[in-house]
Amino acid sequence: MQIIPTETSRRSFLEAFAKTFFGVNVLGLSISASAIERRKPPAQSVVYLYLRGGISHIDTFDPKPGRAEMGGVTAIDTSAAGVQVSEWFPKFARQMHHVSLVRSMTSTQGVHDRGNYLAHTSYYLTPTIAHPALGTWALKQLGSANPLLPGNILINGSPQHPGSGYMESHLAPLPIVDPASGLQNSALRRGETALDFVRRTQLAKSLGHSFLERTQLRSVAAYDKIHAKAVDLMKSKDLKAFDITQESAQTQEAYGSHTFGKGCLLARRLVEHGVRFIEVEDDQNWDTHNDQLVSMQRMTPSADQTLAALLSDLHQRGLLETTLVVMATEFGRTPQISEVTAGRGHHPAVFTWWVAGGGMKGGYVYGKSDAAGDRVAEHPVNMPDFNATIAHAMGIDVEKIEHSPSGRPFTVADKGKIIEDLFA
C-alpha cells in the first residue's frame, strides 16, 4: 500500500529528525521543523521598487474602511482572504495572494533625504561617512550571478541615492536613466572598428599601468575594474537584456508606456539574465501635500498597472519563487487630510512596505496600525529590521562586518532584526 505523506506527517518527521540528529533533547536547543524546511535557496535576485516622496499608507495598502481619514475612498477585497487594499489598486488586489504587507513600519525620519537614506542604507544620514545601499552590500558579499552583467543596477534613480557609499565605486549601481533606450554608449563609435578599439584599450592600459602600480587608492583600482567590466559587457550577447523592445507588444502594453512601467519590464528582463539587485524608482512624486484625492486619482492607475503586471509576469514565468520583489518609500502620510491644502503631510510614525516572492509568505499581513492609521498598534518594524530581512532572504550574512576606509565596522542592516514570520 502506498502511503502519501501529509503536511502533518512531514512536519512530525522533521521534528523527530531534529530531536534525533541535532541533539535537541540533549543540548536543550530549540530547532523547529519550519527552520529546517527553510533551508531553501535564497532569493537569487531582488527587484526593489522605490516609490519616492512618501506614499500614503491609508490610500494604498492599509485602508481604514468607513473612517473619516479615508476621505470618502473605499477599501476593496483582494485575492487574499480577509485582506483589503484601497480602491485605487484594483489590479494589485488580484495579486495580493503573492504579497506580504508590513503595516507596522515606523521611523523617526520625517524629512525626504533622511528618510530616503535610512531606507536604502539602514543608517542615519551624517556628515562624517557615506554608507552603501543594500544593492552594494549584495554585490560585495554575494558577487554577480552573471559575470558578464553588472550585479547592481539602478533604473530612473534620483540624485539622493546613496550608491556605494564608502565601499569601492565598482560596487555602485549602474544607472539607467531611460529604460526605453537600453544601455547607453555600449556600442563602438561610428567608424571605429573592433581592431581600433582593441588598440585604443591596450594603449590606455599600457599608459596607466605604472600609475596603478604606484597608487594604493581603492578608487583607482575600482575604476580599472569598471573599465574592464564595461569592455566585457560590450562584447557580450547578454547586452540584449537591456533592450525592452524585444518584448512583445502585448507584454509592453501590460506594463505600461510610462517610465515606471518600462523600468519594471527592464527589471524583469534583467532578472532573467541573472542580475542580482535591480532598483526601480517611480518617476512620480508621491509627496501629496496638496489635493490628496486628485493626486491619487492621477497617479495610482499607472502604479497599480505596473505593480500587478510585474508580479503576474514573474509568477507566470516561474521567476517569483527566486525573485524577491520589495516596495518601499521613505515614510507614510498623515491620517488627517488638511482642511487648508486638501493634502496629507509627512508621517513617519507608521506606514506600509511590502514584499513578494523570494521565499516570503503570500496573502499575509504582518503588524498593524491603530484604528486611525496614526501609530503602530502591533509588531513595530523599523527600516533596519526590514532590510535585515531582505538581506537574509538573499543569503547575505547580516552579522558579517565590513570596514570603512577609516576602519570603522559596519554590518548590512546595522542592528536590524530579521522578521522570521515573513518567511514561508
UniProtKB/TrEMBL annotation:
InterPro entries: Alkaline_phosphatase_core_sf, DUF1501. Pfam families: DUF1501. It comes from the Bacteria. PANTHER family: BLL7424 PROTEIN, DUF1501 DOMAIN-CONTAINING PROTEIN. This is DUF1501 domain-containing protein. It comes from Anatilimnocola aggregata. The lineage of its organism: Bacteria, Pseudomonadati, Planctomycetota, Planctomycetia, Pirellulales.
